Amino acid sequence: MRILGLGIATTLALSGCGTLGSLSSGASSPFSGGGGGLRGSQSEIDGIRFRTRVSSVTADDRGFTTLTRGAGRDLAAAAEAGRVEAVEYCIRRFGGSEITWTLGPDRPAGETPLDQAGALILAGTCISR
User: Fold this and answer.
1) Which of 21, 56, 76, 109 is buried most deeply by CB count within 10 Å?
2) Radius of gyration of the chain (CA)
3) What domain of life does the UniProt record list for this protein's source (predicted)?
4) pLDDT digits over 80-99, tens only?
5) Per-residue confidence at 55, pLDDT binned at 50, 70, 90?
């Protein structure tokens, strides 16, 4: 009975500090490849919240793509949310924010690729260090 009580107390303590919740959505997740966990990282741009997932596409992890969900609400804000997450990825992985874009956030709205679910796609390469 005492062990059960200790287990419950430990679980409550961990859930109160956010440790358990961070496993699925936080940048500290053991499942994140720099992309903010299983669901991606959340950014707020112009009062709109977006979830962006960054994925490495090259063996050295410098090449990446981002998918920003909900881009139809505001393409420019979604592009900024993707840019912010890409810069954070490059800083976290390589210590700098310089990116060479192949599908950049500065493209005109008509040239902005969306995936089948309506997520904005950005792609680039971290060039720092």
Assistant:
1) 56
2) 18
3) Bacteria
4) 999 999 999 999 999 999 99
5) very high
Query: Does residue 79 form part of some domain?
Result: yes
Q: Would you say residue 102 has pLDDT above 80?
A: yes
Q: In this structure, are residues 67 and 119 in contact, taking their beta carbons and an 8 Å threshold?
A: yes
Question: Domain tally for the chain?
Answer: 1
Rounded Cα gap, residues 51 and 70, in angstroms: 8
Torsion angle of the four alpha carbons 117, 110, 86, 125, in this order, in degrees rounded to the nearest 10: 110
What is the full DSSP assignment across 54-70? EEE-STTS-EEEEEETT
* Position 13 in a domain: no
Secondary structure element (H or E) that encloses residue 49, with its range = strand 48-56
Tokens representing 33 are 């490849």
